[in-house]
Every structure is written in C-alpha cells, then in structure tokens.
Amino acid sequence: MIGIGIKGKSYGDQPVLGNVCLEIASGECVAVLGPSGIGKTTLLRIAAGLDPEFDGHVTRPERISMVFQEPTLLPWRTAGDNIRLITGASDASVKEALVRVGLDGKADRLPDQLSLGQRRRLSLARAFAAKPQFLVMDEPFASLDKSLANDMIALTLELLADASIATLLVTHSEHEASRLASSVYLLHGQPANLSQTRLPSGLS
Amino acid sequence: MSSRKADPRVAGSIRTRLVSLGLLIMVWSVFAAALADPETLPSPLEIGRLTFKELFAGPLLYHLGITLGRVVAAFILAMAIGTAIGLLMGRRKSVDTWFDPWLLFFLNLPALVTIVLCYLWIGLTEVAAITAVAINKIPMVTVLIREGARTFDPALDDMSRIFRVPRLTRLRHIIVPQLAPFFAASARTGTALIWKIVLVVEFLGRSNGVGFQIHLYFQLFDVAMVLTYALSFIAVMLTIEFAVLQPWERRASRWRRA
C-alpha cells in the first residue's frame, strides 16, 4: 500500500500543494488530473521520493519505477543496455522485456536509431523490467499522436494486467486517465488540493 | 554498420594539412637560404640530419623518454585531481561558491612562480617538478569539468535515483559519458600546456629531459640543437594527439553520429 499524506509544499513563499492525501493499493492504478502548472509533477516527485522538501509523509515500497514524460534513456548505450544497466535485469529478462513491448531484435540499437514510439516502448519496458512495487507515470503519452498514444495505452494495460503494481498516473488527458485508472482524482485550487472525480461515462 | 572506407572529406582534410605543413617547411627553407647563416637559422634539412644523428648515435631518445614520463605523470595527476574538484564544484553550489575564488587565484598564478616555489619548498627533485606542472594544469581541468558537470541532464539524475542505479554503474554509464567531451577537451588542451611547462621545469631545475638539453645548448648558443630537441618533442606530442587523443575522442562520441 502506498500512502501519500502531504500537508503542504511550497517553493519559497509560493504554496503549491495544500492538503493532498492519497492511498494506492497493490494492483490499483490511480490517476491525478489537472491543468498544466497546478502541481502534478510536484506531487509525483514527492510520491516518487525525488523531492523530500515537503510537510507530511509518504509511505512507499523499496522498488519504484518511473515512466517519464520524455523517454529519458541513455543515448550512448544500446536499447538492451538501457534496461540491463539501469534495472540490473539479466540478459534473458532484458530480451523478454524487449519482446513484450515489440522491440524484439532491437537490443543492439542505440536510442537515436529508434523512432519516438519505439523509444517510448523501451522506456516502458525498462520500467516493468525493474519489477516495481510502485510505478509512477508522468504524462507518459504526451506529444504522441492519437493512434500511437492508443497503442501505448493498450500496451501499458497489458503489462499492468500481468503484474500487481500500485500505479500513480499523472496526466492532463481525461482519456488516458479513464482508460488506465480505477480511481481518478482532480488536482485544483491554489494551493492545489485533491478531490475524487467521476469522468464522463463516454470516456471510459 | 560502420564502414572502413576512408571518408573523402577526411582524406581531403589530411591532404590540406600536409600541404600546409609542407608550406611551413618551405617558408622556413627560404628564410634559412636567404639568411645564409646556419648558426642563426639552420635549414630544415640540417635539423633533419641532426635529429637522425641524435636519435641513433646521441641521447635524444633518452631525453625524450624522460620528458614524456614527466608529462604523463603530471597529466594523470592533474586530470585526476582536476576532475574530482571540477565534478564537486559543478554538482554542489556551496562547494562552487567556496572554492571559486581559490580557482581564480590558481588560474592567475604564473607557471614560473609555481615552479620556483615548488623547487624552493620541496627541493630540486622529481616530486617538485611534477607537482609544479600538475598545480599549473589542475585549475584548467577543474574549470572545464565543472562546466561539463553543470550541463548534466537532470532527468537522467532523477532516473538513476528512482531506479536506484548502483553508484559505480552511475559513474561509469551515466556520469562519465556526459563528461566525455569536456574530459577530452581538457585532455587535449592539457597535454599541449603540460609539455610546455615540463620543458620550463626541466630548464630550471632538472639534469635530464628535453628542457635540460635545450638549456645546455642555449648556453652553447647552438640554435640547431635547440631546434632539434624542441621539434623532436613537438613530433612526439603530435603523434600522441593524432594516434591516441583524437581516436579516443572519436570513440567516446561515436553514439552522437548514430
């Protein structure tokens, strides 16, 4: 169980987050929606342990993975090495991870030799190869065209179905949130607070 | 797939460089002939003959080896210390604020002063010579590596923290590749600077090496021998530049051309 209990977070004199409490169970995917600049990334960085400067507490497990807005790969290492070096996975696990995201036979390619869609898949493969207990996704399908974003959502759903991972998805897309998450929260106000929301039924 | 076929642009560039070098030797020959005074400006042919003689029948190889050894020792010391300090200063703002005035002080400290002080404080020893050279080079390495550390991609930092990448893997596969162009730049400017300072160090306080030989022939007003030793060492350093440093730099940045 992931427990996020933020009482407040400020940048200097500027309060960004107010009272933000959230619990995510294993196997559950929770989405946080909100407009740009509301504090979604701040919430996500606190949840992932990248920002310890806040008032409150977060309970998180040992093994965490993250899918970033950009693929965030090592451009000087091959696709296979990007998984092996970062997650410590064995050669067999790396091969399996690449096969699962449709990158079979691309282990020796450098990231710049892959298309954007393939780089996103590689980033996803890396996140799951780490066998996380907690997966954090920061607008993982931003800047993708609709069809590619749909493919990536389907692939993510497939990977999540096979693992019992607590997932926190931060996005501004209601479509992504409705497809992937079982609970959707809205971040709003100044400083931002969290409230559960129901998406229009047509979106799910 | 990499091709072993020579790139015509590279071949053209090498040709131009060789022609340019040939032109320099020609200008030198013309001046030497016009001056007609081998004691003031010997011809390139005469220097070639002397180099050949010193190489096979004289002590040229011994002195080149001694100087090269000092260059290598000072280079390793300066690169190691400069990289460590540069990384710290580039990564930690407080360290940078504290040590920036020190860095400025050492950057502006004349090489001659460092050499003289090292000889006075440590004595006319090998340790003093290498320390003096390293002290002159460390600030320059530090500045370049600090710039490199400042350009690190923060997203890769976050990624390595999230995935708990082991420290050594992080250093080898995330930090060093980002630092490689800056490391290469400081290595190249480093060798160029270090060997010149090594000659001054040898000139002032050693009993062997190219700098010592130059000192010896300076006292004898032997321009030809001064040029023989100086040009021989330039040839050694150019060989290192083209045979070691440039191929290494190309290898380190191969991924950029993928």
Highlighted features:
heterodimer; A: 204 residues; alpha/beta; Rossmann fold; four-stranded antiparallel β-sheet; 10 strands; B: 258 residues; mainly alpha; MetI-like fold; 0% strand
Q: Averaged pLDDT of chain A, please? A: 89
Low-confidence runs of at least 5 consecutive residues of chain A: none
CATH architecture of the largest domain in chain A: 3-Layer(aba) Sandwich
Number of domains of chain A: 2
Total helical elements of chain A: 6
Structural class by helix and strand composition of chain A: alpha/beta
CATH architecture type of chain B: Orthogonal Bundle
CATH topology of the largest domain in chain A: Rossmann fold
Distance between termini of chain A? Answer: 25 Å
CATH homologous superfamily assignment of the largest domain in chain A: P-loop containing nucleotide triphosphate hydrolases
Specify the biggest β-sheet of chain A: 6 strands, mixed
* Biggest chain pair interface: A-B, 25 and 17 residues
What does this structure look like?
The complex is a heterodimer of chains A (204) and B (258). Helix content of chain A is 32%, strand content 27%. Chain A is α/β, with parallel strands linked by helices. Chain A folds into 2 domains: 114 residues, Rossmann fold (3-Layer(aba) Sandwich); 68 residues. In chain A, the strands form 2 sheets. Chain A has a 6-stranded mixed beta sheet, sandwiched between helices. In chain A, β9 and β10 form a beta hairpin. In chain A, α3 crosses α4 and α4 packs parallel to α5. Chain A starts with a strand and ends in a 7-residue tail after the last strand. With 258 residues, chain B is mostly helical. Chain B has a single domain, classed as Orthogonal Bundle (MetI-like fold), CATH 1.10.3720. In chain B, α4 crosses α6, α5 crosses α6 and α6 crosses α8. Chains A and B meet through β6 and α2 of A and α7 and α8 of B.
